[in-house]
Amino acid sequence: MYKAIALTTLLTLSSAIALPQRNRGGNSNTGGAGGGKKQATAFQQAAQVPQGVTQATDGSTILDNTVMINGLPIRFKISAPADQFLVGSGVPGAAATSANGTLGANVLLHGDGGQSFFDMPNQAVQANTMGVALLAPNDNLFWGGGSGLDRTDGVAHAQAVNDFVQKAMPKIVAMNASNVVFTGVSGGSLLMSGFFIPGQMQNFPNSAVELNCGALAPQVAFADAATVMNQTRIHYQSTQSELASLQDSIPQAIAAYEKLAVAAGLSTDQVNQMQTVDNTPQGGHCEFDGKDFVTGVQTMLTSFSNVMQGGNGLVAGIGAPSKGQVANGVVGNEKLKFAAAKKREAESMLQMRWAQDVVEGDDFAVLACDRSSCE
């Protein structure tokens, strides 16, 4: 089991979030009429998965820790070469002495339940871009809180993501603050499109956002839409058998953002260059490889630079009948054609396979196995 590390007073120890938390948008289950033992929330279960330092798939170093942002505990993973972490971060081999670095950052917001935070499919450095994943500060691990398409804490969570990147990261790792891009997965895509892009994207010039298996039209007033639409690359990726609710909301988001781009003065060709969409793979929610949620999300993130950072738009391993080319302009493709949603997926976006690593204890879930060993 890896050891938690001390960073600075900015960062909290993992034990600080291991205690039962005040409800942040989800209700804990309780026992029967006698008011038995409380069921651990997803947030409490996540707190039992160790934080610390591990190795990424490409040999980079992953730092997993927690920082308080605007009163919210934001657990993060940053994957970068060890020497890019700031001296004093506690990372073995850290050598950076300035917040200014050459690596950009791809910041990922997971889907409901936190699966992609623990998998961290963006952990390998790609196109000179480090991977970053953030865990939702919500009992259910829902970005934006609430449930379904109703993200009641969207404004606060979007602000926390902005402030983490702009205020906390420069104290942890050297980065190119002018090269920050974003990935949403399912519920994370709802926060990105519904709240973060309209409310915060003006702070990230020349950025890109990949919205995987989810999207909302803007839910808040748009800050400087003309500037954001002219310099933000957006890609919507879905599948044929997407969840029923998302079969409605994704096309609505596409139409809304296309309209904003036209209002910002972009021509049809410019809109199609900046905003693209694809839902050709057969499969259910996030099953971009036609097989599975986890491997499907990994498929998109492995080809992130091809789609979002000036590549050829090809995704290796994407599910049939797609030929791999996903960078299709949105103009004329706003009304996506879907197949029927699978019954087993129709009720929820929740994915919590990582929680199989914890078991019930006297008060709440305790660790049974970490990602590499059991004890």
TrEMBL record:
Signal peptide as annotated in the record: 1-18
Region spans: Disordered: 21-46
UniProt keyword Signal present: yes
Sorted UniProt keywords: Signal
Residue spans of biased composition, Gly residues class: 28-37
Source organism, top-level taxon: Eukaryota
Name of protein: Cyclin-like f-box protein
Organism: Clathrospora elynae
